Amino acid sequence: MTSRGYRPRRYSLTAGAARGAERRFQLAGLARHQINKVFPWHFSFLWGELALYSFVVLLGSGILLTLFYVPSMDEVIYQGSYAPTYGLEASRAWVSVMQISVDVHGGLFLRQLHHWAALIFLAAIMLHMARIFFTGAYRAPREINWFIGVAMLVVAIFEGYLGYSMLDDLLSGTGVRIFSGILLSIPVIGTWLHWMVFESAYPGEIYIERFFIAHVLLLPGILLALIAVHLAVVWYQKHTHFKGPRARESNVVGNRTLPVFAMHSITMLLITTGVLGLLAGVAQINPIFHWGPYNPTQVSNGSQPDWYALWLIGSLKLFPPTDISVGGEYTIPGGFFSGVMIPLVLILLLFAWPLIDRLRDPDRELHNVLDRPRDAPQRTAIGAMALALFGVLTLAGTDDVSATVLSIPLEPLRWVERGAVFVLPPLVYLVTRRLCERLQRSDREALSGGIATGILERPVDGAYRSVQQPFVGVDADGGEHDPEYDGARVPKTPTPQRLRGES
Amino acid sequence: MSEDGSTPSERDLDRMDVRELGRLGAHLDDVEVVDDSPRHEPGGPGERRAIRRVAAWFVLSVLGAIGFVVVYVLWPWQYTSTGPQETLRSWFTPMLGITFAISVLALAMGLLEWSKTVAPPDVAIQQRHDGPSPPVAQRTFAARTVEILEQTGLRRSKLLRRTVLAAGTAFAGILAVTALGSLIRNPWRSEGPAPLVTTEWHSPDGERTYLRMDTGDPHSVTLVRPEDMVPGGLLTVFPFRESMRGDPEKLSKILRSADSSVILLRFAPGTPVVEQIGQEDFNLGGLYAYSKICTHMGCPVSLFEQTTLRILCPCHQTEFQANEYARAVFGPGARPLPQLPLAVDERGYLYAPHDFIEPVGPGFWSREPRG
Ligand code: HEM
Ligand code: FES
């Protein structure tokens, strides 16, 4: 660089604009602070960004779809150009979605883009949540973002459900029927709640209009607001990082906002958009022209909701038949437990996890350095246990299809699943815990005994011995000491340079 | 921002170049830049090569975009069901996706390459400032809060505290009533019988309600005679009254009614049958009619297994034993399918003397008849 001093040029458009903004808002110090902000990098930090950018795609494609979708349950005759359903009676909602799929230029691409973005959005949220859980990122001072996060997860599930329920095809109508049944099952106020949503017995004449407003206005608004707060909190509290050569509790190591972090983040936005676009083009999703319009007296066999709702179906399926009579006069249907209480309790446990964690762990420190999952065996095992339960319920949700495909009888399968709900999670807990402890030991062994190099040497006594590459700890002032495990990843492959120096 | 006392003077600033000023800014922001060495000699051959690679990605991105627009505008996309056009048309959406992805992903790759081969690694360390605010902020804030409570009189007057709380709650209350009030309907108040406990099989004025099958034409009416049913046969039927004839909309709508569809079965002679107590006369010989609406969550049951005589719900696979008053024998459903009484009129057509004697479909709190 030159040694000449630097001053902003006096006469240029940008300099003029900057001076103008400065005079009005005093931005220089503020803006510099933000573009100098440091963000750590780890692949697992990308799940949150994936969720964010799928949401961006959802908003964009969704706005375009609203220009064509008609939220109406009026019955009309389909007269679009798709021959197989020509002349069928259907709601205007279904007909408008048919129009988007068949008669709007590029409409099918938009619809599939929107649906794929929804599926990926929910997958990204769950992966993101898993990384927050398994690394302990929810601990103080970040509990608030965990609470906001679980709220967003619940809103996102409802958002997705409402989205595919609006199409009024044979598949989605079945889903609404089940929702109606779950509402009705709630003791005392169930029928009143049902009338609040449907204005009548199922199906009534208004739910599609209401679902539409909730889907395009209410829930996206809530999500937007929550995402804004969520990201503001991440920004303000500074992101966590993994232990590394320079990373401490007291600092954050990474790239500054500009240019590198922004370049990577925009890359992530583009990759998300590009991959979703590819899926939208080549992977058919929710072909309502195959399902046909909804008819409450029909149902297609093996109808499946979107993947993130399967665990709820699993709960409905596995719960034993129960109709509890209250004083011989009132009924609590089993669906209340499987459709309301079980999901509610699971979600509440998830929501309260940072608080539950405090019962288990007396640690009240603030944490900016993440745990490696193996270093918190109990927490990791609890998480794996929860995933196992989610997995069993999800598989149960789709077991009618797997039973048909694999041609296994459904009834014994159901009993196996019911057993698995109780047996598998504790088993997974034990196995995960042991696994974590083994991994910890292998780290400690590598640190004290060195890494196996794969080289054999034969000293004078004649016995072969394998050569280990030892670790050396280096202090801040350059002195060497015996290595100690400090929560950073322990390399398990030898470094060639040092090997050469030592052998 | 930490100003560490040694803020440089205007004269010092004049002497600093871009890099020094950048470092100073970072320092003021508690950032120590560990590595921002350029990847290549600026303007040198290494950087020129790197930039050419980045540019190649961006060119590909533009080509992809052009491809996308060309496909969008020129590719045949209008629906046809036959001919060679059909294959071409079916490739419209995939081609859109492919060109879209090429354009966007090439842009992403260019950006990534740019950040990795031209922009510096930019490894930086920023200090965090965890923990509470400095004591002066805490004390002054707390004091000011107390002062405000004093000044407003809230600290002194219990009456003020209580009434303002009450008024605030009342305000929240009227907001809630305004928001939710419009949505609340009484499910038990409606013209005519309560919809939760009656179906279209209920005849308001005593007119006979016949069994009608769905022929595919929503406006034609075909009634059912016992002889139409072969043993082991199953038919979905809907309610029909002569007074509906003049109402094409009603005729069509009832075929999609959510609570009135019924399955009609005829058991082969000799099939052992167990009847529900109190409903021993609902069947007509081997003919039995059950609500089609699953008592679990309301899906239409739609499969009949001839060998086991079980009716199967496709939603959560509850199985109902057809020859044992359709009681639930497997899966999550608990209650039997309600049975519809059957009779035959003088012309030989099947009709239902009265509605189901219990609510059909999913259970709810007050489904037991009261009184
Ligand atoms: C709508 C869905 C969500 C979006 C768009 C979103 C977005 C993000 C983003 C972009 C970050 C920063 C990058 C990262 O760490 O991945 C982040 C951080 C965080 N998120 Fe989310 N998130 C969502 C849902 C959730 C959920 C369901 C949870 C947990 C239950 C959660 C908890 C957190 C926490 C605790 C942080 C701070 C992480 C740290 O500093 O290490 N988020 N979120
Ligand atoms: S609705 Fe029939 S089994 Fe659930």
Provide the structure class of chain B: alpha+beta
Q: How many strands of chain B?
A: 14
Please tell me how large the radius of gyration of chain A is.
29 Å
Series of H and E elements of chain A = HHEHEEHHHHHHEEHHHEEHHEHHHEEEEH
Biggest interface goes to: A-B, 112 and 99 residues
- Percent strand of chain A: 5-15%
How many helical elements of chain A?
18
Output the CATH homologous superfamily of the domain at 40-315 in chain A: Cytochrome Bc1 Complex, Chain C
Class by alpha and beta content of chain A: mainly alpha
Q: Low-confidence segments of chain B, ≥5 residues, pLDDT <50? A: none
What is the subunit arrangement here? Answer: heterodimer
Distance from first to last alpha carbon of chain B:
75 Å
**Helix-strand sequence of chain B:** HHEHHHEHHEEEHEEEEEEEEE
Biggest sheet of chain B, in brief? 8 strands, antiparallel
Assess the beta-strand content of chain B as a share of residues: 5-15%
General shape of chain B: flat
Structural overview:
The complex is a heterodimer of chains A (503) and B (371). Among the domains of chain A are: 40-315, Cytochrome Bc1 Complex, Chain C (Up-down Bundle), CATH 1.20.810.10; 453-499, no CATH class. The two termini of chain A are 44 Å apart. A two-stranded antiparallel sheet of chain A has the order 1-5. In chain A, strands 2-3 form a two-stranded antiparallel sheet. In chain A, strands 4-8 form a two-stranded parallel sheet. Chain A is 60% helix and 8% strand. Chain A is mainly α. In chain A, helix 7 (170-185) crosses helix 13. Chain A is built from 18 helices and 12 strands. Residues 498-503 of chain A have low confidence and may be disordered. With 371 residues, chain B is α+β, with helices and mostly antiparallel strands. Chain B folds into 2 domains: 10-184, no CATH class; 204-365, Rieske [2Fe-2S] iron-sulphur domain (Rieske Iron-sulfur Protein, 3-layer Sandwich). Chain B is built from 8 helices and 14 strands. In chain B, the strands form 3 sheets. In chain B, strands 3, 4, 5, 6, 7, 12, 13 and 14 form an 8-stranded antiparallel β-sheet that branches. In chain B, strands 8-9-10-11 form a 4-stranded antiparallel β-sheet, with no helix packed on it. In chain B, strands 1-2 form a two-stranded antiparallel sheet. In chain B, strand 10 (319-321) and strand 11 (327-330) form a beta hairpin. In chain B, helix 3 packs antiparallel against helix 5 (92-117). The relative contact order of chain B is 0.07. The chains are: A mainly alpha (503), B alpha+beta (371). Chains A and B meet through helix 2, helix 5, helix 7, helix 8 and strand 5 of A and helix 1, helix 2, helix 5 and strand 2 of B. Strand 5 (251-256) of chain A pairs antiparallel with strand 2 of chain B, so a sheet runs across the interface. FE2/S2 (inorganic) cluster is lined by residues 294, 296-299, 313, 315-316, 318, 331-333 of chain B.
